[in-house]
Predict the 3D structure of the following.
Amino acid sequence: MFKPRFSTRTLTTLALLTAIEIVLSRFLSLSAWNMKIGFSFLPIVAAAILYGPLASGIVAALGDFVGAILFPIGAYFPGFTLTAFLTGCVFGLFLHEKQGWPQCVAAVGVNQFVLSLFLNTLWISVLYGSPYGPLLAARIVQCVILTAVQLIGIRALARLLESYGGKRGDARG
């Protein structure tokens, strides 16, 4: 007999986190054609802490895809959805078991200075035909700002989830 991997409660929580990610990303962030600063990482981190890499990757990818379709900022480009999925997976890999400073620094470092800086800059360069080098230099400021914001935000969210007894989620319900 087929037994679902995620319970109805887990799927509902992930759907809510996806909706929150869309609102934070599309309506409550500062955006320019080559930069975006906001708090849309928080629901992805919550999914990572509670349910692990796959769930947080799905929340991030669905949030990007549905947000881009319903509330486009520019042309839809699947590379950004791939980066979003990888971002969620990285948060899940580093933060699901423990959310100390070393784990937070590693998760944010990989996401900001590998995925966002190098990979998203590549996607922007391909999408808009901009030279990669100058675009990369311009996006360093965003990465530095978001590194600080994410480190503080992740630690605060981890403490909040722990205080409510929801630090560890059960993927089976």
About this structure: Residues 83 and 115 are 6 Å apart (CA to CA).
